Amino acid sequence: MVGGAAGGFVVRAFESMLKECGNRKYSALQSAIQTYLESGKDSNQQPKTGETTQVLSAASNQSSSSESESGPGKVEMQSDPSGGAEGELVLNPLRLAFETKNIKVVELALDCLHKLIEYNHLEGDPGLEGGKNSKLLTDILNMVCSCVDNSSPDSTTLQVLKVLLTSIASTKLRVHGEPLLGVIRVCCNISLNSKSPISQATSKAMLTQMLSIIFRQMETDVVSSNSVEPKEAHSEDGSNSMIEEASSSDRNGPRITSEDVLYVKQIHNTSLVSLQGIQNLVVGSDIKGLEAVLQKAVDLEDSGKVGSGIGSEGISVEQRDALLLFHTLCKMGVKDGKDELTNKTRILSLELLHGLLEDVGDSFTKNFQFIDSIRAHLSYALLRGSVSQSHILFQYATGIFSVLLLRFRESLKAEIGALFPVFVQRSLDGTDLNQKLSVLRMLEKVSKDPQMLVDLYVNYDCDLDAPNLFERMVSTLSKVAQGTENMDTKSSNVSQTGSLKTSSLQGLVNVLKSLVTWEKSHRESEKQNKENVSSEEVPPRELDESKNVEEDSPSNLAVMHAYVESMNFCGMKFDIAIRGFLKGFRLPREAQKIDRIMEKFAERYCTDNPGLFKNADTAYVLAYAILMLNYDAHNPKVSPKLSKSEFINMNVRNNAEESAPQELLEEIYDSVVKEEIKMKNDPTEVEERDDIINVLNLGLPRRSSSTDSNSEDKAIIKHIQSLINSQGEKKGSFYTSDRIELVCPMVEAVGWPLLAIFAVTMGDVDNQARISLCMEGFKDGIHITHVLGLDTIRYAFLTSLVRYNYLHAPKDMRGKNVEALRTLLDLCDTEIYALRDSWVAILECISRLEYTVSWPAMTATVMQGSNQISRDAILQSLRELSGKPTEQVFVNSVKLPSESVLEFFTALCNVSAEELKQTPPRTFSLQKVVEISYYNMARIHLVWARIWSVLANHFIVAGSHADEKVAMYAIDSVRQLGMKYLEHAELTNFTFQNDILRPFVILMQSSTSESIRRRILDSTVQMIKSKVGNIKSGWRSVFMIFSMAADDDLERIVESAFENVEQAILEHFNQVVGDCFMDCVNCLIGFANNKSSHSISLKAIVLIRICADRLAEGLVPDGSLKPLDIKAGETFHLTEQYLFPMLAGLSDLTSDQRSEVRNCALEVLFDLLNERGGKFSSSFWEYIFQRILFPIFDQVRHAGKDSFISSGDEWLRESSVHALQLLCNLFNTFYKDVCFMLSPLLSLLLDCAKKTDQSVVSISLGALVHLIEVGGHQFSDHDWDTLLKSIRYPPPPPPPPPHPPPRSLWYKLRIDSKNFPDAIPETDARDEVDSPALGSIRSKCITQLLLIGAIDGIQKKYWDKLNTQQKITMMEISFSVLEFASSYNSYTNLRLRMHQIPAERLPLNLLRQELSGTCVYLDILQKTTAEVNIHKEEAVKEDKLERVAEEKLVSFCERVLREASEFQSNMEETTSMDIHRVLELRSPIIVKVLRGMCKMNSQIFKNRLRDLYPSITKLVCCDQIEVRGALADLLTMQLSALLP
Hints:
mainly alpha
């Protein structure tokens, strides 16, 4: 009996049915109901558990009864109503109720049956042979299905649908086989034939649910079976038919190559006719042939002869049900007929298939065995749908095909390859607009899946035997978007055509977006994997250390400096030094900290290895170059590698002298490439090396790698093609790849068509939707081409976008052009790294934008001729864009890497230069230059130095602008940036501060404007006053600026500059004396030479003296002075090297025409030499004489006959006399140190003595006499030899003139009577005209007269210091001088000259010169012959000297007396007065000789009397009283001693 819960709703249902069949028409039904009700009463009266158990056993022969819930407040049914007698009691009334065809009765029965099924009171397997209660339940389901027809009311239909859905969804009642098909068939009939929309919609919805339930059960069954059975199913030949599994562990399957180029996703080893035929028809043009092949494949599947699919045996019931349903639906989709019902049937089937395939899980898509069993049916159905004329049918077929592309491409490779051209190319090339729209929407959808696109390209475009589906898709979409496809002009309209273009453009843009997404996801995945590996490898403690970077503080900086200074790099090669340096610690992850460490390293290395580099900047740049080379050479991801020449170019400086030697760079390159520089022993040293480059934001020198990139991409494609073709029989295998390089050809395939579309769209239409798509395409295209390194197409995208903004032609500007500009500015914010070589064009656009919105004349040209509303809207948009979006472009410059930011600055300077050329000049970009300079000043020194090299040149151009306002702005900008940079202290040996101020130096030198020069000077002064403590190398530029100010014509500028120089030296000497000490000295020398102010010149000389004193006193810090390149081969002490320029400057000042300055410089110069000369080396003394002292007299030394010292140049005479005296005093003071300079000194004096200028001769020989008098006592034998040798060989006198010389020659002789009292020649008071010959004679005469004085001084004061040879030399010199005068004064010459002059005048003569020479000569000879030798060892030498002197004395006296006696004899023969006058003139000479003979050694006189006597006796008759008197004295003194 039935009781409990089931009994409750069954009894109520049966009682209701009894009421509805009160008449005797349904007697059988009534009887069956009564029987059930009575059995229920009996059961309630005699409840026996044993009976229930017996009934339950009888009802179920194979399984025990199941307990189920019957609802709230109900008791369980004690037996199964679906079996045995009790089951018959329940089901029999229901069967009879269905047969009555009474709507109410049937509905009551359906409701009761629905509850029985829903509450799991019915259990069985209808449709399964041998299944539980199969026949009974099958009959019931068949009766339910028969309860409804086209005329059934909605209530009945809905009740039937509810029962059928419940039966399919029930876990106890499992419908299979034909009953299942029957259920589906009834639902389909209701959906197709019902006149009620409600019934149609409900049946369709329930069909969808049923199919979903059935296939989900199949998926569950497959998963459960896979969990027990092995994952690999084997085909008949034993090969794997499925390699790929859904798990992530082996998602990519076995690898074909070691390079991970390609992965196998699905391998088909079948030799199906379908597969082979489809592959032969992949082009999609032979529709009938393709249909025949697929029809044959369908027949094979129906017959169960599919080799690798699911046959009728060996499969689960659930799989068989799903397969049956799928085949049925596919057959419905290919049903023949053109009537409406057939069409609706096909539509319904495709709709259900579409929903089914979209709804199935991943396990179904990976169930390759099942898919192999349905591929033919599905493909055939899609093919029939693709050629259908029904728009709805084609639309559903297209939807199914999109699902295949997205979810089933791994299993249906050949089918997709065949159907793709049919759906896409054939439809888009056709004329049906509806089909085109459907296909385009499908492509829009599938193109959003990036992996699908990549797989499409790999499996078809890379397969030489497959169609290029990706390429064809792009090409076809491009044609549609450009409007070049076939179009039925009669049926088309503008809106439809526009929709087609928009949809196709959307598809192409989606393709590009998907490639961008795919590339980003893969890079993020690689990055994540790398981070995961790093986190696994690095111990937690070390990770913490890498993150704990302390903030900067003075103490930390001092510790770092102390650490670096503790290292010793002396004699160490640079690469070895930096290797050891980087091994000692881990570099921080902050650019500025790394930069300070590298700066300190460079400074320390240069300190330990002076002279190797010009300055520390060179070592600093080389250190960074090595870091980048190390990153490049040992990072496998970097390609191509940095070449040796590129590495050398990285270290090239603007000044060739500052560049590192090429040999050193080549050696370093080879060392680093051979052996990697490792940071600190760290498991993440590779990541650390790469991170440092990223932290520093450095970029390797950009190389033109587009060619290499293209070749690499082509190589990968060819490799994939060869892998696919090498598979042989496995031609149907599906491949996938994760190589980013694959995207390159795909981007090129879609990029160029997109550019063509953009050109058409931007040029022809103003459609907002399409314009938006174009802008999206521009953004994605520029991003992906930049990431992939496709520079050519990237540049094409950028230039096109720039061109479309129309700022160059504002009158033609429209809304689309504003959008192009907006997109360009957005790219400057989001894709700033991709803009690189396009910055000039972009910044020109920004400049034009500002010009357009801020200059009324330009604003008026925007959209000329258009309505005011449109113009206002455009102008408002432009004003908005000129605000924050434009400003953000410049703010984002801080994000750029080193190479790109340099391009940005260069481009902005170029744009600014063009703005300055306009009339009137614009300063918008110049202002932005200053702004971004502030933004980027935090960059490392290496990058900022390169930026400043660009900025400095531009500021120089701007500062030289004709418009003074522009120039002033440029100068103020340099000042502001300079002060900002000077906030940071500079290390020793660096020169960047000097580079910062270089524009001021150049502008100060080149500017002709007083206000500009004053502004530069004021700016410099302001920088000094505010940042004096931080200025180091900047002093060099500061002093150069002041030096130029010292040469200025305006006294105010000179005074202002000198005040600050004076203050800097007196108050900040320690800061000044660093690397710029010599610049300071040169600046002071410049002020000393200024002509505008005597007082400034004198103060400058005093400051030079102060600097020299401090230098000599050691107040200049050690290490702050560098060796100066004074002269090749010279090595001086540092103090001497730095003292020399000061002395040289003072030496130049000694020729200043201002007496105060000249005398002050001369005094300071010789004071310094006298005070500091005791510490000078011999080589330095020689340098001082040659370069400092001797040049003082160059003007005098090199004076010729045309450069006499005039009265106006009296200052030169005075200073020369003073200087020569000081020079001689200096020589004598440091005689022991400078004695080797005697010869050059004498050469100087004698060179001057040989000049024709009387003053020059007087000065020089006077100095010579002074030198001998003051310092002769210190002369050594060598010095005396040098002196005598210098004056021994004067140039030979010119021959006497043939005509009487002008008398003015002698009138002009002025000789210092104080020094040479006996050397005053005869002169006359009248002037005559000079001649060249007489000028030369005069010069020679004066020289010899002064030499006589010098010789006389030597023989009187230093005769005893001379050796024998030197004394003989003295005799020869004095005689040579005397011989010149005596030859000129010969009796013959005097008499000849007397004939040519009036009687009252004396002839020209050198009688006094001869007389002086005679006196000196006789003194020397007599002193020699009169000496008595005391030392015997000297007897031999003295005897020789006496003999020589005796011979010379006798010879000279005998010659003079003989000439006089012979002339006297002539007087007796003639009475000519000329002879008497000549004798009168010559008488002083004769007298001097006679008196000298009086003092002659008596022994010599006695021995030589025989030779002298004839001449003496002839003179007795001389008419000259003086001669006779002298002769008398001689006879008295000498002859009287000889008489007995």
